[in-house]
Amino acid sequence: MRNLLLVRYGEIYLKGLNRPYFLRTLVSRVRQAVADLGGKVWLHDARIFVSGCEDMDECVRRVCRVFGVHSVCPAIEMEKDDFDAVLEQAARMMSGLEGTFKVEARRSDKHFFLDSPSINAKVGEYVLDHTDGRLRVDVKKPDHVLSVEVRDHVYMYVRVIMAVGGMPVGTGGKAALLLSGGIDSPVAGYMIAKRGVELIAVHYYSFPYTGPQARQKVLDLASILSGYCCGIKVFVVPFTEIQMEIHAKCPDEYTTLIMRRYMMRIAERIARKEGAQALVTGESIGQVASQTLEALTVTDSVVDMPVFRPLIGFDKIDIIHEAEKIGTYETSCLPYEDCCTVFTPRHPATKPKMEKILEGEEKLDSERLMEAAVNAAEVLTL
Ligand code: ATP
Ligand code: MG
Asked: What is the CATH number for 213?
């Protein structure tokens, strides 16, 4: 008999022939998540098991954050040939609980001497007889469910902890997240990574207008994201020279949009070098002047790869709730300025004219500026 975690996966169930590929990836993600806790991870019979973690609570927390995991059940593993011991353990697990319960048996070992309804009946009866009378059976809407899974061993659990869901990172390709120090872009990155997409992050850094604390804040955000994504490569791209050039040579009301276009172009270059197939931003329609439909069209038109904006229809308040849930909100709220706020024009164009933008951009030595920025990028792996 021993304690372990029984890990259930979600949407991977829907996969057909390539389910083994998704499962293998999920197992290796779980393994990575608990590696330094000394946990052993294996797949058996449609379940993932984790045993041997010294700190079980931390182990649960980590596994619950692995994309692709639906729920985590702290379970007891027992030998199949001693059903009396199973009954006694069932009673121990239910004692102290009150209200209603049911037993839910699953028997994937069809040679086991009892079928599922018989397991339900025998375990249920034993629990009723051997707990202190505060439990009643309700098979329709019970307060507690005692699960009994008969596989290579018998696994029993009462507690089911919901995990993040999604798909294992790496099964959905790779994308470059434009990561600012704000509230939105970390949430956008989380949402895309949750669908199995590996992320790299690109941050534009305007030293000395934004200081080392602003840079550290972004690295901290990337580090929180990395807890979900099993690592993230961050490119900190020096952006001051481009911003100064834009500021000096382009019409004031267009500086933000032109800056956004350079951000997209540079991110695309880095994405291509890194084998990423799409860009991700934290934009949402109408949130600021550079996020009107017209402005987004102008920003999109400089790149030749899909741009994902998972927050496009979200209200700010909903984004904040998500940020709180995933643990990035507090860091995002630290008061260090981002490059966008340093150079904000007083009256940014909300209905931009393309000729004006192109006219401004022609005055810049774009190729040299972008190459210099990409080459000088600082690359960190978190
Ligand atoms: P956020 O809260 O993510 O900063 P925002 O509402 O402040 O978003 P903008 O400043 O207009 O919006 O930026 C829109 C998007 O552009 C961001 O969500 C992010 O994806 C990207 N972005 C903005 N600033 C930077 C930066 N310094 N480095 C990398 N990407 C950036
Ligand atoms: Mg911002």
From this structure: 3.40.50.620
Give the integer Cα–Cα distance in Å for 101 and 22: 34
Looking at the structure, tell me whether residues 27 and 158 fall in a common domain. Answer: yes
Ligand 1 mean position, distance from CA 56 (Å):
38
Q: What is the DSSP string of 116-127?
A: HHHHHHHHHHHH
| Ligand 2 midpoint to CA 272 (Å) | 24
What is the structure's pLDDT at 340? 61
Ligand 1 pocket test, pick from 340, 341, 350 with the greatest ligand atom count within 8 Å of Cβ, gives 340
168 found inside a domain: no
State pTM to two decimals.
0.91
pLDDT of amino acid 15? 87
The residue whose CA has the least distance to atom 30 of ligand 1 is 178
- Does the beta carbon of 175 lie inside 6 Å of ligand 1? no
Tally of domains in the chain = 2
Q: Whose CA is nearest to atom 31 of ligand 1?
A: 180
CA of 362 to the centre of ligand 1 (A): 24
Cβ neighbours for 312, distance < 8 A, ≥ 6 positions apart: 283, 284, 285
Residues of the chain with pLDDT under 70: 339-342
Check: CB of residue 127 under 8 Å from CB of residue 99.
no
pLDDT of 106: 96
DSSP state of 168: -
Would you state the pLDDT for residue 104? 98
Ligand 1 atom 16: residue of nearest CA: 281
**Polymer length of the chain:** 382
Which structural domain, as residue segments, surrounds residue 309?
Answer: 174-381
Residue 356 Cα, ligand 2 centroid: separation in angstroms?
Answer: 24
Nearest to 24 by CA among 162, 170, 222, 164: 170
**CATH number for the domain that contains residue 74:** 3.30.2130.30
Residue 341 has a pLDDT of 66
The reply to whether 30 and 149 lie within a common domain is yes
Q: For 114-166, what is each residue's pLDDT tens digit?
A: 999 999 999 999 999 998 888 999 999 999 999 999 999 999 999 999 999 99
Kindly state if the Cβ of 261 falls inside 6 Å of ligand 1.
no
Of 124, 141, 162, which residue is a domain's last?
162
120 and 179 fall within a common domain? no
